[in-house]
Amino acid sequence: MDEVEESKRNSALARFGLSVLVLTFVIVAGAFRLGGHDSLIGGRIYASSVSKTGNKWPIDVQVIEAEGELLRSQALSQVRVDTNGQVLFEGPTNTEGLIRIDIPYVDRNRAIPIRITTKTKQVLAQGPLQPPPPINVPRIEPQHQAFSRREGDVDIDVFVVGGRIALQQESIVLVEVRDKSGQRAARTKIDVTLGGARLVSDPSLASSFFPHVVRLVAEAHIIEAKFHVAASRLLPNDDPSSTNNSSRPLDLHGEWTGTLQTAPGSGHLSSENSFAWDNLRPTEEGDVDVSFYAAPKVAYIDVWDEMGRVHAASLALADRPSGVGAKWKVPALDVGAYWVVLSRTAQDANLPSTRAWPFLVESPDGPKPVHAGDLWKLQMTPPPLTLILDGYEQTVARAHRRRDFARAIAVTALLIGGLTEIFLLAVAFRRSSSIKGPVGAARSTRILSFLALAALIALGFFLLAGVIIQNG
Questions:
Q1: Which fold has domain 41-136+388-392?
Q2: Nearest by Cα to 120 from 73, 79, 63
Q3: What is the pTM of this model?
Q4: Which of 223-227, 294-298, 428-432 has the lowest mean pLDDT?
Q5: Of the four, 24, 51, 162, 400, which is 20 to 30 A from 352 by CA?
Q6: Average pLDDT of 131-158?
Q7: Phi-psi region of 413 (alpha: psi -120 to 50; beta: other; left: phi over 0)
């Protein structure tokens, strides 16, 4: 009877040991699943310093996903952006995984809390947004054609609207003529010779700023231009726009020879009002045509003043007979001088294909904006946007914390399970040595062998799991 009871106890001990092994396996498997390498995805937020007006602050949200050791942008069908309980944006990203939002902004010294989530409520980025200090501001400088030569009785300056000339798109070159004293010429005739481009129209005189307008289409990457000028002097009491000067003899002569900068792969902006240097009224909005001869899927437009970015937009480009294009609505703007930057990339607008068009917003009754008289002579280089919140790094940090927690669970389960199996093996060994008789001894030997085998399997499993957990 004692042998039977002892055998039952050993059988129960073996079943308990098996249960411990199975439970340890389940806990470790669950820990692996909890700390596994799920898809790492997050949102990086880029911005510039606040603009001069400061009533809106544009931000870019770029969705990033890890693909092995590489990071790539990821388009999503639904993204939600909240701040202070207000939904700023809810919708899809563009095809490059990016959204652009103009955040209402009041206090430059107060951070804006923001939370960005996916359709499944996964957090892409969360935290306070603080505008970067006005250190990286647009670089505004006189436009200069590097490879050029002037000679003769007059000074000739050449300015490309947009900074560079786009291939296979109509571009505008402004030519200003002054005598050696700095006075504008009373009457001017310009003969244009182009290499690598064709002339669309003869030079005409724009009445507002008095430059001659040359319209051309670039057909090569290098454009050689020659402007031969014949002009008459402007007397002190003359009105430059008067037709009474037409009888003056063209006794001043000069020539400008040089190379015009091209922007391979760049786009073009056009509107009925040629807004690139004409005046816009405050709060006046209108459509501007955006076109590319090459074929990107997305174009990016930024409006800058001398302090920061005022507006940002992303345009999906549709096929056209001569390339791709879209319509962009000019936002309502305060009085001031602005530049519209058209680029194929979002965060880095300093590419050869980037162009910047100047324009003014004036009030009939208000003072003239800064640069009002010479805006078309200036070129603006936008600074790179600053990374102000890295949601991808937040995602990586959360994944590391989750993996560390899962590793702690697995290691704890392995230690407890391993110690329990060793304890059960010791108990079974002690009991087996006290059993008398051949039947009990044989049964005890089988139980002991089973527990020993279970312990060896558990040990191998523990070693393998420990290696896997240690290596992440």
A1: Immunoglobulin-like (2.60.40)
A2: 79
A3: 0.76
A4: 428-432
A5: 51
A6: 83
A7: alpha
